Amino acid sequence: MTPMFLLMAAGSLAVPAVALWALRWAVGHGEFQMPERAALLPFDEAEPVGEATDIILNQRTSKR
Amino acid sequence: MSAPSKTLSALMPGDVPAGDGRRALLAEIDASCRVPVLFFVVSGLAWLLLGTLLALVASIKLHHPGFLASWEFLTFGRVRPAHLNTVIYGWASQTGIGVTLWLMCRLCRVPFVAPGLATVAAVFWNLGLTVGTAGILAGDSTSIEWLEMPRYATPILFVSYAMIAVWSVITFRLRTERHLYVSQWYLLAALLWFPWLYATAQIMLVMEPVRGTVQAAVNWWFAHNVLGLWFTPIGLGAIYYFIPKVIGRPIHSYYLSVLGFWSLALFYNWNGLHHLIGGPLPAWMITVSIVASVMMLVPVTVVAINHHFTMWGHFSKLWHSPTLRFVVLGAVCYTLTSLQGIANSLRSYSEVVHFTHHTIAHAHLGVYGFFTMVMFGSLYYVLPRITCREWPCLGLVSVHFWACTLGLFLYVVPLSVGGFLQGLAMNDASVPFLKVVEGTLPWLKLRTCAGLLLGLGHLAFVANVAWMLARVFGPYRKPVVALLTGQETPVVVGK
Q1: Residue B307 pLDDT > 80
Q2: Is residue B408 part of a domain?
């Protein structure tokens, strides 16, 4: 049993432990509440909902 | 760590600026990302061109074995792993990291902290990769699939990755938006999972190798999870950001997106061993892997439903947005490759397609059709914003999209069919093996044609990026239109 294997085993236990901690943190901080608000996070006053942001091709066709 | 500028100081921490303030913050975030993100992306593109060239050489050798056969460093056994490592660690990982850095800054609503740290990380990454690729071509490959780079190259990559991980923790801690968007869940998980996978596989396969069939088990656990727990979360995180952002509509169901993330985290890690069906491993290990693979129907279905219903009523925008074209194509390929992967994991199907070109088609549908297409789409969105320049040639955008799409189709469909027929023939004891090999030749020639089309698409994209960068760093500066400012009239941006 070398130190490398101990490190690896510790890492393999740490990953699910971090996942469980993250889940607990998310529940505690209300991450799973108000999904409507969370879904709006990519948007703001500068780039609001309803405004397309990457329309650069075939512009003439769309104006007809 | 660089201190926030005056503009930012006025907005931090926790302020929610409206209107012009918000636009100034977005512009500052984009500008702050310029050097580190461009470094990752441009070097990623250079590796993409080299990887494409190596892929073409390897592909031609499959039907013309005498091609470039007089140089030992261009033999198939060296060129093929060199191709794999350059596209996986050079193109896909670096571009993925570049897009991740930008998305994290945007979603954390904080300008790029410590750009020097990320740039040094990019330098180290490219240094490690150059040493590793040269080592493979020189004959120092470890011969372990997806980990072929010699052991003297990997510590350099790991130092680089450690810097990126430190950067992501700093950025996350400094975020001004307290709530997390689903993309951040995916990106942060990818940044956690990759070092775990890479370090564990390096220790168990390269530094202190385990014995016997355990090597194969660890190898496939690693190789499969690099796609599922490194590229997939980055790709899905990007899709969940760019589709709503481009069409201006929130994701169809945020609940479903969170369910998709946690079910991916729960089931994907167990999938890799289905590649060893029929191998000398305990049957329960294979069975657990098959069950977990079938359970992947949950996150895959959830993601497919969410993407489809988010796009519902907005499909016409595919005609106008290069980002949307590539990202939606990538999302469709994610669903297809996942369903194909689930089928491949079943014993009855695997008995036919395992050890055939069908598996190669499946891997390319995942890494290219899904991840690379999403990254192309992401770059069409990110690069104009961080350089403050429009795409110089829209014709090249179309060449890029159609060449890559046709190339992907010509690659995946013939190899999937040809691989299936190859598997049926191999399972028939009355067919001589040489006949089986001869039967694959038409499919392999089509694969080379597909590679040429993909290469054409890559050249078109790189030419467009180079043209754009020439406008950024060269003497001529074209006015920026609408993209950042939202104004109808052109705004002159210059030094």
Answers
A1: yes
A2: yes
